[in-house]
Amino acid sequence: MQAEQRTALVTGGSGGLGEAIARALHDVGHTVLVVHSPGNASIGAWLEAQTDEGYNFIAYGADVADHASCQELAGLIQADGYHIDILVNNAGITRDATFRKLSYADWDAVLRVNLDSVFNVTRLFIDGMLERGWGRIVNISSINGSKGQFGQTNYSAAKAGMHGFTKALALEVARKGVTVNTVSPGYLDTKMVTSMAEDVVKQVVAGIPIGRLGQPGEIAALVAFIASESAGFMTGSNVSMNGGQHMY
Ligand code: CAA
């Protein structure tokens, strides 16, 4: 069955996982808007490369950690005539350090970009979804939000917070045709992971029963399913895909 065409917004949509999610949603016929950070100088080249491969995305620069910037973003999207049916809160950063070395700046940046952004962006699009009686919100968390990770008190706290948000909002909107779910990827073959020290990456892979990093496309296929009509009975879930590294 051809998927009903919707409009999706993917934050961090030009990054490793975000790009794969944007493509997977485009592949099933949705209009896909991507949000990138305001200072992203390579976005023009990225968009061109996507177009060359048949992916026509609409890009907006906004600081998802900043409420006012997100309000501006919503205004631009509305002025361009779009309403958002599918929201993927994917934007995220790491600032890894053991807790005793963790600065307030690195705590704050990770909480703001990974968790405050979920409030900032979702708050602006939830009313429209409820009014239209249909919506899908997918929050991209992490294996480390459930299992914890040495060197990631900030990131683990933010990612765990995302799933708390998912569950509470899922309850509030369940009867209005809007679902809210969390996806918790394990370690993927993206810059976020491969930019760690080589020995750390090796150690991580050694702890993954499947024996390799995940591919962004594998997570993206899961997100596309959760965003589909077929997933209407699924809400408040935390779906993990991590090569067997953490089972719960
Ligand atoms: N478990 C237990 N002890 C560990 C450890 C671990 N996993 N890793 C390091 N240590 C120990 C070291 O052996 C060392 O011990 P000694 O002092 O007794 O020799 C000590 O911790 C080192 O402590 P430091 O504070 O000096 O640590 P560091 O500055 O060298 O490095 C770190 C700290 C940067 C956090 C580094 O450990 C690291 O990169 N860890 C991996 C973090 C990680 O997995 N990040 C995921 C990023 S990708 C992502 O987040 C995507 C996703 O969603 C999965």
List keywords for this structure.
binds acetoacetyl-coenzyme A, Rossmann fold, seven-stranded parallel beta sheet, alpha/beta
* Helix/strand structural class: alpha/beta
The profile of the biggest β sheet is: 7 strands, parallel
Element string (H = helix, E = strand): EHEHEHEHEHHEHHHE
**Unreliably modeled segments:** none
Mean pLDDT across all amino acids: 97
- Relative strand content: 5-15%
Let me know the number of strands: 7
How many helical elements? 9
In the CATH classification, which architecture applies?
3-Layer(aba) Sandwich
Explain briefly what this protein structure is:
With 248 residues, this protein is α/β, with parallel strands linked by helices. The protein is built from 9 helices and 7 strands, in the order E-H-E-H-E-H-E-H-E-H-H-E-H-H-H-E. The chain has a 7-stranded parallel β-sheet with strand order 3-2-1-4-5-6-7, with helices on both faces.
Describe the structure in your own words.
The structure is a single chain. With 248 residues, this protein is α/β, with parallel strands linked by helices. It has a single domain, classed as NAD(P)-binding Rossmann-like Domain (Rossmann fold, 3-Layer(aba) Sandwich). The chain has nine helices and seven strands; from the N terminus they run βαβαβαβαβααβαααβ. The protein has helices spanning 16-27, 43-52, 67-79, 104-132, 143-147, 153-173, 191-194, 198-206, 216-226, and strands spanning 7-11, 31-36, 58-61, 86-89, 135-140, 178-185, 238-241. Strands 3-2-1-4-5-6-7 form a seven-stranded parallel sheet, with helices on both faces. Helix 3 (67-79) runs parallel beside helix 4. The chain is globular. 42% of the residues are buried. The structure holds acetoacetyl-coenzyme A. Acetoacetyl-coenzyme A is lined by residues 94, 96-98, 101, 142-144, 149-152, 155, 187, 192-193, 196, 200.
